[in-house]
Amino acid sequence: MILLGLVAFNILTQLVIVYAQQHSKKHVMMKEMLIVLTGLKPAYDAFKVSSNVEMEAHHIVDAQTEHSLTKLAELSFEAIPGCFLQAYALMTLWSTKNLEFSDSRSIGAVLSILLSTGTVGYASAVINYDLDTNPVKRKYKPEFYGYTPDNPFRRALIFLCMILNSSLLLLIRSISMASLVTVEPMYVIVYLLIDHSFHFLQKFLRGDVWYWMPVYGPTGLLATFIMRFFGKLVMDFTGMVQGRHPGELGGIYFTMNMVLAVVGSLVSMYVYLDQTSPEDLATTPAKAWTGMGCLCVLWFVSFCLFLMLMKKGYKHTFFSTQTGASFFRDSFLKGKDVQTRAQIVTINEHLWANIRADVKKWVGANWWQWEEDIPDWFTEGWKGNVPLDMIPKERREEIAKHGGLGRRGSSASTLTVFARASREDMRRKSARMHRHTRHSKERADNADESGGVEATKSMVTRQQSLLKRQQSAMHRHTTSDGMH
After folding, report:
1. Are residues 6 and 54 in the same domain?
2. What is the sign, positive or negative, of the torsion defined by CA atoms of 309, 312, 314, 320?
3. Using CA atoms, how far apart are residues 271 and 266, in angstroms rounded to an integer?
4. Which of 204, 337, 395, 432 is spaced 20 to 30 Å from 251 by Cα?
5. For the whole model, what pTM was predicted?
6. Is residue 145 within 8 Å of residue 245, measured between CB atoms?
């Protein structure tokens, strides 16, 4: 019954993710909810990531982040609790049935636990690997993403270390939590309350409590609580190295959290052995300490080997005191290119409120140039995250004339009107570019006779390239408009 409840929570969470992403497009939302109910959501998300599905104006996060959220839901509600329940059941079996490890039932249960922890370790490693090797993330934040070696052999080794690190930590934590529950379930509840309360308190005192996703109001508060609570829970049990990101736990807190998790597990084992009568113990104290000690040593070795194999220049991220708010502000203030700086609008405004005026001035000063050039990142998804008051007055008036103003991300009709207004401009620009290209070709023909062929052909090539980009962007606008 408990396992069925956990599966139901996982499915419900995935349905909520789909609703948050697709509620502006009912037919797409219903299709993806059906995929969730069939259990194919992770595979479908992986397909969207591999197909480079573009983020649309009504989306909260991109395809890869959505895929990671789905995996985190599975880890939080199914995989991690499942490992704990198996460990608790095995300890109960050993203590009440007086079974030996050599018994077939014991061997089967142990193999099941090892398989479960290994599966979780692999899932955790895949999330870390996918995020770190993502070319876009490496471009935006090369000081954080890029620790995975380029050498294939070292890359395979570091991936194996990530699997072992997560699997061993989960096994250690599952055994320790099962030991505490055996003694007194309230111990686990008190421990989790104190641990998570301190986590929220230090986030609050450092002005970093808001989660980075651009969700606001009561929904934003709920999303922040859920992501902070379950995010830390997953990091506690798996040691997922993405947790060192300033927007998650942060470098120094992540490292201290892992050390305390291992130390806490040893304390839990001591409490179990001290407060349980000898006849009720699942095994002898000597075997218990030997087993737990070996697991802790193996975890420490795997983590140290991981640090040794990673590229130079990334170890400091495990000891950084930088907050998420500071991290995202720096991406704008110290960004080396326009694309990097532009990502600030995809982050929760609470984290960059003190530079909002600078961002508004920068967006307003460059907006018309972006509409003229249409860079690759200037998509409907990006524009859907821009606060409406940062859009130039002329464009806002055009939106109002077509359908009224609304809070960004809260009205599909506003986004549709915005797309239509932008599309009209693109059609005019495309027409101008056709004329310019035709005139350039005529000049090129005349230049054949005067000797200026190469320079003129180069100019024609550049204009044709810009025309293709204009047409591609107009097609994206048209497609997005038709879907709303």
Report:
1. yes
2. positive
3. 9
4. 337
5. 0.78
6. no
